[in-house]
Design brief:
By secondary structure, this protein is of the alpha/beta class. The protein is built from 15 helices and 10 strands.
Length: about 325
């Protein structure tokens, strides 16, 4: 057999083998996962994302590269969620209120005083309730939930005055990013004002709104303290994010790489939650140095005014779901 003939047969054999390689083997080629965030570096979301990127790239030996785009470089949360569904963006973190357009059940987390605390929200979203919502989102929108990071407790902040009792809210224009929070502030006597998150800084300075309910970390990060000098620890709601990835993209990955993504996501949630707890304490200390006044109102007074909101939530989401969320927090 001539050398040329042997070489030709070897090439044919190699090509034939390549043709029968299983899909997972072909998926070993290098891929890029773009992760868009609406928050800046150092935010609890970003801390978790950084941990995710580091672990994915290390455990896939660079076969999967994670590119993080902070400060909504690839669009806001609603736009990003739509792009993940379409597959033009691989992954993002979006608040539950902004995912309600895909699955209305996510809006239940905007019901005021649904959670006793930030940490008490974890057994809910990590348990059966969170898993059911994840399964529904996957079925409805082809978006896989990788975990539920937190952005902290929503406390009332405002530019006008101390708020210790519900009556202190009368006449204040408070940002309401979703219908449930809109109903909440209206029931408490405030004037709810719909406003996109990126507009909060200018709106506070220009008097378009008098206040908002958001974590202390956001107040520090986005410099709202420059015009806002009053914070009431109302714990109105707990901010829950949803780390989502496009399902077709995920399925194109090899099984080992899928396992890495899932494991890295779980670790990123741990990093996010630890970071939020730490940064919240640091944010309060910093805000005090900026002259921000803090008050701790009796939350029961606020709850007592919200009976109509709670009744509407039962009709919308079902008493069973609300009871299961409460039951998951027992002993918390």
């Amino acid at each position: 057999m001539t050398t040329t003939l042997r070489t030709s047969r070897w090439l044919v054999a190699v090509m034939a083998a390549a043709l029968v390689l299983p899909a997972p083997a072909l998926a070993q080629q290098k891929v890029t996962l773009k992760l868009n965030l609406g928050t800046p570096a150092g935010n609890p979301y970003n801390v978790g994302a950084d941990a995710f990127k580091k672990m994915v790239e290390a455990d896939t030996n660079g076969a999967v590269t994670v590119q993080i785009f902070p400060m909504a470089q690839l669009g806001g949360e609603t736009e990003s969620a739509k792009n993940v569904q379409l597959g033009t963006l691989e992954a993002t973190i979006v608040s539950t209120s902004n995912l309600a357009t895909f699955n209305d059940k996510f809006a239940v987390f905007s019901v005021p005083y649904m959670f006793k605390s930030v940490s008490c929200s974890f057994p809910v979203v990590d348990g059966a309730v969170g898993q059911e919502m994840s399964d529904q989102l996957l079925k409805i929108a082809r978006m896989r939930v990788l975990g539920y990071p937190t952005f902290g407790a929503r406390h009332l902040l405002n530019t006008k005055r101390k708020v210790i009792h519900p009556d202190d809210l009368k006449g204040l224009k408070i940002r309401a990013p979703d219908p449930l929070l809109e109903a909440t502030w209206r029931a408490l006597g405030a004037n709810p004002t719909p406003l996109p998150f990126p507009e909060v800084f200018n709106a506070l300075q220009q008097g378009v709104i008098d206040g908002d309910a958001n974590p202390l970390t956001s107040m520090q990060t986005f410099r709202w303290y420059e015009s806002t000098k009053y914070v009431s620890f109302t714990n109105t709601a707990v901010g829950i994010g949803v780390f989502i990835i496009n399902e077709p993209f995920f399925q194109k990955l090899s099984k080992p790489h899928q396992d890495v993504i899932l494991k890295a996501a779980a670790e990123s949630i741990k990093a996010n939650r630890a970071s939020e707890a730490d940064l919240n304490k640091k944010a309060e200390a910093f805000l005090r140095t900026q002259g921000v006044n803090f008050d701790t109102p009796n939350q029961d007074e606020f709850r007592a005014k919200l009976t109509p909101v709670f009744d509407e939530a039962k009709k919308r989401f079902g008493a069973d779901l609300l009871e299961r969320i409460a039951a998951a927090q027992k002993g918390c």
